[in-house]
Specification:
8 helices, Arc Repressor Mutant, subunit A, 34% helix, 9-stranded antiparallel β-sheet, alpha+beta
Length: 260
Amino acid sequence: MGRRPETRRTTPRRSQRPGATVSCRIRVALPRDVWMAPLTEAYPSVRFEVLDRLEVSPRRVLFDVRFPMLPSVSWSERLRRLPDVRSVELIDASPSAEIYRILFAGRTFVPLVKRLRILRRFPFPVENGRATWLVVGADARVRRLMTALRRAGVAFRIDSIRRGLGDEAPGLLTPRQGEVLRGAVAEGYFDVPRRISLTELAARMGVASSTLSVTLAVIEKKIVEPLAAQDDRDVTHPRSARPEPPAPGPPREARVRGRA
C-alpha cells in the first residue's frame, strides 16, 4: 500500500481590518518660540494659510505659506526679522496674496506627528497665534496626540471629531474651498439674517471681496447642483410610482343594453 501524503494543518490567516480611523479638527495655540506665533499675533484679524511643509533635517523645515496682501506691509521684511528664520523666498504672487517658502530652524510639531504616525491635512489656517489642524489617524493615536500636547503644555481645543477620513465628500470641494466654507459658516455668513457681510468676511480671511464672492459661488454651485439633480430625478422618476390601472369600463349590463 502506498503512503498517504501528509496533510498539514494550516491556521487560517486573520484578515487585517482597519482600525477605527477618526478625523479630528483641533485648534492649537502655537508656542511662542514657533515662528508663526508672534507674527500672526501681531495681525490678529488676518488669516494666514500653511500650504505645505517639508522636513529637510531634524531641526530644519521648509514651509509654504500664503500671506494676504496688506497695505504698507512687507511680509518679506517681517519674515527675515524673525528669529530662527534662515531663508525667505517669494514663489508666487497675486493682487490678493503672496506665497513664501520659508526655511525655519527651530521647534516645530513635525517630530511629534511623525512619531505618532498621524497626518495633518494641508492647507491649514493660522490666526492670532492659533493653528487649526485636521488630523487623521487611528483613534488611539489621535488620543495619544492630545495627551502629548497636554504634557508639553500646549493649549488646544477640539472643534470636531468624527469617524472616517474627513468631513468633506471626496471630490466635492477642494481643501481651500472647504476652509472657506467652514470659515464662512463659523462667522455667520450663511445665517438668516447674516451676521457678517461679504466685505467683512473677505477682510477677516485676508482676500479680496471679489475673489471671495467667486469662491463662495463655486462652493454653492458644487453643493447645490447634486441636490437639485437628485430632486429632479425624484420628481421625474419617483421610485414608488407605479402605472395607474386603466379606468374601469361601464358595467356588463350597461354594455348589453347598449347593443339591444
